[in-house]
Design goal:
CATH architecture of the largest domain: Beta Barrel
Radius of gyration: 17 Å
Shape: globular
Distance between the termini: 27 Å
Number of helices: 4
Number of domains: 2
Strand content: 35-45%
Helix content: 10-25%
Largest sheet: 5 strands, mixed, barrel
């Protein structure tokens, strides 16, 4: 069963490996994993914003961060056995960088899959139970995804929910995701497992709404 309870923390310092693809994420160092938190976390910015621009600004100051061990300060949210980090302090969230080694990304080989589920935005789903459906859910999800919050395909199965990060590298793919927000859809694409997350590389021409 998935854990639908919500756990939040005050601003917390933590350390781990940062990766920027397909969205900003962190693999916590095993000595810095807070109790009850999964080792792999998505990273988002404050409000309805992704963390991409924050890290772009940081890399202008400090150089490439992908694959580096870094220390951050942020707010942790956990639900459905997933963890999300909100960088409410923006660029000031970065506390330290270990420059000596660049860690490789961990991913499995891709396999073609067809999936049915609902397109949601990661931040609202993992942090705000009260807007998981209805008009505001759709409106909020559209604004969040347009501003860089990772889109997710939520697939219901016998054991609860499975979540797939939607990786659309083209403008057409991103537009297709926005057009189908908060709808039940069928999609085709290639799936791999990457740093604790299932990632669906989307075939934008395959998305269709299920009545």
């Amino acid at each position: 069963m998935n854990d639908h309870s919500y756990e939040t923390s005050l601003l917390t310092e933590f350390e781990g490996m940062y990766f920027d693809q397909p969205f900003p994420m962190m693999v916590f160092d095993e000595y810095y994993i807070p109790e009850g938190v999964t080792q792999n976390a998505l990273i988002v910015g404050p409000g309805k914003s992704g963390a991409q621009e924050i890290f772009q600004q940081l890399e202008k100051q400090h150089g490439a961060l992908n694959g580096k061990s870094i220390r951050l300060k942020g707010t942790l949210y956990t639900t459905d056995n997933k963890t999300l980090i909100e960088l409410s302090q923006g660029v000031d969230a970065l506390l330290a960088i270990e420059r000596g080694y660049t860690y490789p990304i961990q991913r499995t080989a891709k396999k073609t899959m067809q999936l049915q589920g609902e397109i949601i935005n990661a931040k609202c789903w993992y942090t705000q139970q009260e807007i998981r459906d209805g008009y505001y859910h759709k409106r909020c999800s559209k604004a969040c995804i347009e501003n860089g919050i990772p889109p997710v395909l939520k697939v219901e199965n016998e054991s609860g929910n499975a979540f797939y990060l939607l990786d659309a590298t083209t403008a057409a793919g991103q537009e297709a995701i926005i057009d189908h927000i908060a709808k039940t859809v069928e999609v085709n694409g290639e799936v791999n497992f990457q740093n604790g997350w299932s990632v669906l590389s989307l075939d934008e021409n395959s998305i269709r709404t299920i009545d």
